[in-house]
Amino acid sequence: MRLTLNRRETELTPAPLERLSDTLRAQGLTGVRVSCSEGECGSCTVLIDGRPVTSCLMLAAQAEGTSVETIECDDPATAALQQAFIEEQGFQCGFCTAGFILTARAFLARTPDPSEDEVREALSGSICRCGAYPFITRAVLKAAASLRGAA
Amino acid sequence: MTISFDPTEHDHVGKPLPVRDAREKVSGRLRYANDLALAGMVHGALVRSPHAHAKVLRVDATEALALPGVVGVLTHEDTPRTVWDGCWFNYRGPALDGHARFAGDEVAAVAATTPEIARAAAALIRVEYEVLPAVLTAEAAGATGAEPVRDEGNLREPYVAEWGDLAAGEAEADHILHAVIDHPSQQMATIGRNACLADWEGDRVTVWTGSQTPSELKTGLAMALDIPQSKVRVQALPTGSSFGQWWSNNFMMITALLARKIGRPVKIELSNAECFATVKRRHKELSTGRIGVTEDGRITFLEIDHVMDNGGYGFKNDVGFFCVDNWGRAESGRCTVRAASTNLVTAGCMRGVGDVTLGNCVERLCDMAAERLGLDPVEFRLSHQLRTGEPLRHIMGHDVPEVAQARSDSKAFRAKVPADWPEPFVLSSGSTAEILREGAAAFGWDQRFVGWGKPNHCDGEIRRAVGVGTGIHCCGVELEGGTAATVRVNPDGSVKLHASVGRHGSGAETTQVQVAAEALGVTWDMIEMETGDTDSCPWSHGSIASNTMYRTGFATVSAAKDAKRQILEVAARNLFNCDPDDLDIRQNLVHRRTRPDNERYTIAEVLNAVRSDALGQFSTVIGRPTEAMPPSTTFARHFAAHFVEVEADVGTGEIRLLDYLACQDSGTVVNPHVLMNQVIGGAICGAGFALHEELHFHPETGAVMNDGFLDYKVLRSADFPARTQVIFGNSHDSVGPYGARGAGEAPIAAPVPAICQAVFNAIGCWVDLPMTPERVIAALDRLGHTPH
């Protein structure tokens, strides 16, 4: 199957019932973290045509013809979020971090100037068991401000 | 209170430096165990018992072995009968012994070329069982004629802490109040599933896995494999979230055994359901207590009977109950902990063990007493909680010679330790007092608390009220001893710290480097740390029991000072021609204390000068701890005081958190960013336990029924208040590095009583845990009227 993976035309040959998360990890994209495998935790979130999707619940074949982006994809919004997550320490163990950053990137693309409560709601599809939520929220607000400044 | 710590004096301590692996975490490049692969590796899957309790009569692997791609099978018949011990009795048992002690217990393992084939093969292994009667509760475990879960019997020796004259305390009390609290079992519910890889080279094995306790895992593997520790190398990796889940676990032993049997590297990756249902969990704990108070507000006695279940392989006879120390001004007391083995998944130390549960019971009793007397809960805590220098009630290790000696001859003890170290058997530094006062002022407690059982705001079915709770935990356990670290200074002046700590998000790989850099006088960029390789890191208990900053940090600082001493001796002899005591190092530069800007050499220049040194120095300096903590007599604790406002809907039973203030006394704050994260993370996990979290066990098989995030609910970002603040206390510990103590566990203990109290104030009654809408409605039904 053909798809655009991290902005490069790519050809992949997944097994018929392979999950997209497994296909991407097999490409060395370790930023696709698999934890719950039931779409509840959000660690494996990737962007499909700009929309956040839990890749553990999607068959790889369904991604044919789409644009798939992971945390490894060079992107100014991802970079701004990464920097803000570092500065605000929006993580502890780091396992869920890529999923939060990609979810936040898609959210900020739609809502460039969010309120604090909007950020908290928008990120509620992901679980940070370490409980870094307030710092994640701050990081997203900080990245939003810096992206608005850059725009 | 005197503040003897000035952060401006320091280059690293007290600074909010970014954690060392931040870039790897945000980029997805940090390597967890499930990211690793080895050349020639095969994949393992586990065969698990469907029965709560059964003997394995026969394992028939014929069909499995016939499946293309299957490499080999491991059963109890291939397994040494040696018992391996997990740290602090969190596990005791052989890796496989043909005796299934819970539904989900491992009975065999199979290796194949892909994980899918391995799982298919595991399903083809036929196991014949003799099903035994199952013991599913601690109460049943203690009944006459109960089926033994273990050869040692079901009941552990009761653990008792006692002080004062309980009978007199009871006689003197004007009011005696009772509480019974059934604490459900909390699941660590880790994000990030663990994997284990094992590879044998001859008779030596290397194991890669996520672990908070690399050295303890090496010890456990040597026991399970029945080989010397010198033949075991653990390469501990980041765990993902852990909270006590990933110390040393039986699936790691099985991975190493399977690899030895088939002669190839093996990887076993657990599924999320396996992580939830087969590894570890918090104990189910039933707390029954009584408190006696006089009309004028004295606590004359405190009595707790606490029953916990160990599951199949836990072997603890106590949970940490430092909460008894926290309320140690009670005039008399007795706390009894009784533990029983059951045919449920193994229970062990989850973050805040004991102080989350037993601590909640103590706080409840004290709240009930304060309510009866009409006293303010902040004031009641200030009156009755222990202060620095006051005697502790929960002294562990009475039978250890060092403890006995310090008790009988305190002068001999004082002669052995530095003059500024605390007296033995008293609270060494800090308390709840300062953080309660500062927290109450910052929260506006006096305005927002309007009386026991009274909301400060009513609107239709909405009731709002505030609550306060305190938490305490140890800073490592006094009897562990032995934690070491080494600091190696390379010929180019760069430094590597080797200290065995966990990388589960607590920031230890950062804060240890901060204190090492401070003690040695080097800059942030010149120092790296190895945390997980047991071939280079000396033995340590790892990151458990909030010991990392206090105990490992002590060893780290001591090793750094030893390295510094060696560098200064070389510099004094070869370059300065002076006494080493006249020299110092700051910012990588060796200089005279009196004239720091005059003559300066880099550490690399000093170590190069060693080449002409005839006195047997080496150009790699290895610093090791030269001082030891008194292992059994210095009692540091850390403290939390949390303030919360809740909103209860008496129509739906829903509880929402509106405002949260977490105050923490951990002594010197080495990295405020790291500590804030620990404090809030603890509060959120504790709030989850108060409001939602509970494992459900099948009534017949004892199997965990809610083995994933679909059915086991944890808090998400919108569930915790946007209004969240942290305040740090200012105490200073004379033993801990730069005045610091432990940090990670008191913050999960305080939220439970705080939220329970706030709900009581909102709706006028206590609610069973977890306080789900159903339980809130049930409590209101028992109350028999709509409050207020």
TrEMBL record, chain A:
Pfam families listed in its UniProt record: Fer2, Fer2_2
PANTHER family: OXIDOREDUCTASE WITH IRON-SULFUR SUBUNIT
SUPFAM superfamilies xref list: 2Fe-2S ferredoxin-like, CO dehydrogenase ISP C-domain like
Domain 2Fe-2S ferredoxin-type span(s) in chain numbering: 1-74
Family matches, as PROSITE patterns: 2FE2S_FER_1, 2FE2S_FER_2
Gene3D superfamilies, sorted: 3.10.20.30, [2Fe-2S]-binding domain (1.10.150.120)
Entry protein name: Ferredoxin
Domain of life: Bacteria
A single GO molecular function term of this UniProt record: metal ion binding
The organism's taxonomic lineage, starting at the top: Bacteria, Pseudomonadati, Pseudomonadota, Alphaproteobacteria, Rhodobacterales
Keywords for the protein's UniProt record, in alphabetical order: 2Fe-2S, Iron, Iron-sulfur, Metal-binding, Oxidoreductase
Entry-linked InterPro entries: 2Fe-2S-bd, 2Fe-2S-bd_dom_sf, 2Fe-2S_ferredoxin-like_sf, 2Fe-2S_ferredoxin-type, 2Fe2S_fd_BS, Beta-grasp_dom_sf, Diverse_Oxidoreductases
